[in-house]
Predict the 3D structure of the following.
Amino acid sequence: MTAKNDVTGDSIASRVNSKEYEDNFERIFGNKPIGRGMSTAKAEGLGSDTPQDGDQRLNHEGKLESYYGGAWIVKEKS
């Protein structure tokens, strides 16, 4: 079931970032995104969005995750 705005009744859904947002991400936040749930190659416009071993992203807690063996793994600092 899709979430609805209580006031307007509109569906609430995340949208894909615009080209302008992607182009200005570094200027806004000071650094380029790392994968963000897609392969680094896809983020650079080079490949598919299927994760490959070694791909990295930031999870919802801002922790760096790496993709290995079909799963995203958070590497804890030792």
